[in-house]
Design goal:
single chain; mainly alpha; Transferase(Phosphotransferase), domain 1; 6 helices; Kinase-like_dom_sf; kinase
Length: 177
């Protein structure tokens, strides 16, 4: 088995080492994560365990998603006819339907992305007030922000953390900006 070397460690290591990253760097990582997850979903792969510990950095400081041990496949063209039902992943990042033993699709990954992004912002920028109670949505306080790009990020997090998966955006169409 051959694997790519990710000499930059994981995103959590970077957070701990740097103590503070700029918003621009966090946005760059977020774009890379969204692009990678979009690629997975186009090919019918649902990761089911997206978290900052599963985002590695290569020598050019680019995100690489790892740990596909819990991933599964869905037919990309299926209209939710073949859903998944295994409860797995990290509870702090898991979507409500996954924790509730309900059938689910690729939008469980959409839930996990802002959870990881908010954790990055919380740890790096101390801009978000995040409270996580089981399957309840994390809360983001947008009133602390002045940058319009930050407001858009907060809006994306709110939309992606919708408790009903049918109300969450699709990565391919809704996160282009």
């Amino acid at each position: 088995m051959a694997m790519e070397l990710c000499a930059g460690g994981d995103l959590m290591d970077r957070i701990c080492d740097r103590r503070r990253l700029g918003e621009r760097e966090v946005r760059r990582y977020t774009r890379q994560i969204l692009s990678a997850v979009e690629h997975l979903h186009k090919h019918g792969i649902v990761h089911r365990d997206l978290k900052i510990e599963n985002f590695l950095l290569d020598e050019h400081n680019n995100i690489k998603i790892v740990d596909f041990g819990l991933s599964n496949t869905l037919k990309p063209d299926s209209l939710s006819l073949e859903l998944l039902n295994t409860q797995c992943g990290s509870p702090a990042y898991a979507a409500p339907e996954l924790l509730a033993h309900k059938k689910y699709g690729s939008k469980v990954d959409v839930w996990s992305i802002p959870s990881a992004v908010m954790a990055s912002y919380h740890l790096l920028l101390n801009k978000f007030n995040r409270s996580h109670k089981g399957a309840k949505a994390s809360k983001v306080n947008a009133s602390q922000h002045t940058d319009t790009k930050t407001h858009r990020c907060v809006d994306m997090c709110h939309e992606s953390l919708a408790e009903l998966s049918c109300r969450r955006p699709f990565i391919m169409t809704d996160f282009r900006e």
